[in-house]
């Protein structure tokens, strides 16, 4: 089973994300949405959300999707490029933070076991 590798495309408001998703899906590009905070629940319960939405697409479709999104009038091209770069940097930092948290948890458990058996 191969893993689907995604790449962050853009973070935008809910209404703009809906338009971008429709554009990309009309061009044969699959899109995955990630809502901030309780945005997904708010859109189901109230019909709209005031929270931002992150859009992801596969690595293979990323360039084509970026070209299509950059042609839209309401999307700032500089924001699209900066956001992609900052996401990649944040992804690296979050990986190291997760790894450090795992190490701390394992050390805590080992120390707890040591104290439990020897005291």
UniProtKB/TrEMBL annotation:
Recite the UniProt keywords alphabetically: Membrane, Transmembrane, Transmembrane helix
- Give the transmembrane region(s): 99-118
Q: How is this protein named in the record?
A: DUF2007 domain-containing protein
